[in-house]
Amino acid sequence: MSIKIILSALAVLTMMSSPLYASEPTTGLEVMKLVEARDDGDDLIKKTTQRLIDKRGNVREREMISFSKDYGLDSKSVSYFLAPANVRDTAMLTWDYADEARDDDQWLYLPALKKVRRISSSDRGDYFMGTDFTFEDIKSTPELGDYHWTLVGSDKLDGFDVWVVDAEPKTKDLKKDLGYSKVRYHVRKDIDMYIKVDFWDRKDRELKHLVSTGIKQVDGIWTVTGGVMSNVQTHHKTELTFSNHQYNTGLSDRMFTERMIKRGYRGK
């Protein structure tokens, strides 16, 4: 059993022992802690196909390979573009910390410039490589400490019982940095995974929607196999297909360093 699962189980048991916690979570934060604590393996390798579709229907397709690893409740991940040639070896490295007082670290390597760009906290609302995902969106879970969480209630979505949870940035500066005034998560109750996310821009206007297009079990772990982010303001969308999932392969720590993203993907 992974360290993350053990620590997460202790956190959940602590919540359940609270008088505020009955058979189901009673706050939005409790729901999102369950999302954060769900079993996602000790490490993961996967391939991704990106399809960027503009309002005229023009399509750009890209191929990526990604690696992630848990360090207790922290995690590290790195993604490399494999194709087409104009983005090959572009890489994104993220160190995601559970400590709310500590900012996550992100670096983007641009091979044409042979330069690593550090993504500051004020840049995390910028869009990633022409997709409809920001640097913040591509993290495995949102930063829980950045938002006020509200459990709106329960609903049915695609035949599943879901919790509906609203997130609002705690400060004006966070609202500016993140690029959102509100985010709404629809979390499946049976597997603690969100299957739809709605976003509003800084001016409280409907901005975009993320919808999961496939979830299945791989090696006993609930796994997303596809998703679509659609921007209703630009009429642009990004379709993602995930495949070739490999859990718990014993990834080396050296994979998650600036030195490695400069080197480019050369196989595991």
Describe the structure.
It is a single chain. Helix 1 (3-16) packs antiparallel against helix 2 (28-37). 28% of the residues are buried. The chain has 268 residues and is mainly β. Strand 4 (91-96) and strand 5 form a beta hairpin. It has four helices and 13 strands. It has a single domain, classed as Clam (outer membrane lipoprotein receptor (LolB), chain A). The protein has a 13-stranded antiparallel beta sheet.
How would you describe this structure in keywords?
13-stranded antiparallel sheet; single chain; 268 residues; mainly beta; 13 strands; 4 helices; 14% helix; outer membrane lipoprotein receptor (LolB), chain A
Task: Break the fold down into its secondary structure elements and pairings.
Layout: H1 3-16, H2 28-37, E1 43-53, E2 59-71, E3 74-83, E4 91-96, E5 105-110, E6 115-119, E7 147-157, E8 160-169, H3 172-178, E9 182-188, E10 193-200, E11 206-218, E12 221-231, E13 236-247, H4 258-263
Antiparallel strand pairs: 1-2, 1-13, 2-3, 3-4, 4-5, 5-6, 7-8, 8-9, 9-10, 10-11, 11-12, 12-13
